[in-house]
Amino acid sequence: MSLKAFHVLFITISSAMAFGCGVWGIRNHLSPVPGPFDLWLGVGGLLAGVGLIVYEIRFLKKTKGQSYL
Amino acid sequence: MEIPYTVKARPDTGLYNAKVGLWLFLASEVMLFGGLFSSYVLLRVGAPGGLWPRGWLNIPLGTLNTILLISSSITITFAWAALKSNQFGRFKVFLGTTLLLAITFLGIKSFEYRDKLSHYQVTLNSGQVVDGHLVERTADHLVLHGVEADSPKAFLDRRSREFRQLQHEEFKLATAEVKKVEAYKPRMNTYLALYWTMTGLHALHLVGGILVMGYFWGPGSRMWHTAPEHFTNRIEIAGLYWHFVDLVWVFLFPVLYLL
């Protein structure tokens, strides 16, 4: 697996993690005892997840000629 | 003697030798960290209800560190891509940025470690427990800035309403009334033992990566002028290792900081 392939995998997992953090933050913010940073983490996580997917698509387009091996 | 297959792929594996070696090494690393993550899951699932600490770590700092490491994975990939397109100047900028991001991560982590090492839980002869950061310690008294409760259980869930209602203040405790003093070190409880072991091992991996990348950014970069393809492969190998280390953190952050 080349650096390109591992990078794509890494960004995919990071994006999933960012969405997970986003959901965690929003859920905690809506709970009876919200923490001071829950809303920030929730919104930031969801935005970061979207941002990483956009970056991944652009990265894949730019490295079309590179091998995955 | 020349080492074979440093640039061209070996016919039987289809890869240059360093890449095969690195993936074998990463396989052993997966087993090392996999074992620790499995220990975490088993110990956490086996812990009696309500006795697992929650909210003990600084989420904003952990989030910032996660952003730094994800960014460093992007910059090291750009550094490799710059070499692929013969842009040595851009490579230097991107690898230098990766190094700065990694060093900043370690700086923030060491701040978190320092915070934990100055955090104490003091049990008094009366049964009361004071939890907070050490302000002063002399032979006859101890000053802590923190909170007081009837039992150490009150400090387990720091996201709970009960904990948040506790008043933060300064406590001056005479040594004669102190029964036990415990710092937030690995021996305090299972959670902290796992936290220190997993993040400490991860930090050691980061230090290793920083040393290798520092060499490639500095004296090692001379190789670009004599063997550019070989050097590009070396950066790819460093990038693969760095991605693995970052991936470990991407799992460590939610497991230790959020859940």
Describe this structure in words.
- The complex is a heterodimer of chains A (69) and B (259).
- Chain A has 2 helices and no strands.
- Chain A is mainly alpha-helical and 69 residues long.
- Chain A has one domain.
- In chain B, strands 4-3-2-1-5 form a 5-stranded antiparallel beta sheet.
- Chain B folds into 2 domains: 17-116 and 188-258, Four Helix Bundle (Hemerythrin (Met), subunit A) (Up-down Bundle); 119-183, Roll (SH3 type barrels), CATH 2.30.30.100.
- By secondary structure, chain B is α+β, with helices and mostly antiparallel strands.
- Chain B has helices spanning 17-46, 59-84, 88-117, 161-164, 190-217, 223-226, 228-258, and strands spanning 119-124, 129-137, 141-149, 169-174, 178-183.
- At the A-B interface, helix 1 and helix 2 of A face helix 2 and helix 7 of B.
Task: Give the topology.
The complex is a heterodimer of chains A (69) and B (259).
Chain A: H1 3-30, H2 38-62
Chain B: H1 17-46, H2 59-84, H3 88-117, E1 119-124, E2 129-137, E3 141-149, H4 161-164, E4 169-174, E5 178-183, H5 190-217, H6 223-226, H7 228-258
Antiparallel strand pairs in B: 1-2, 1-5, 2-3, 3-4
Helix pairs in contact in B: 1-5, 1-7, 2-3, 2-7, 3-5, 5-7
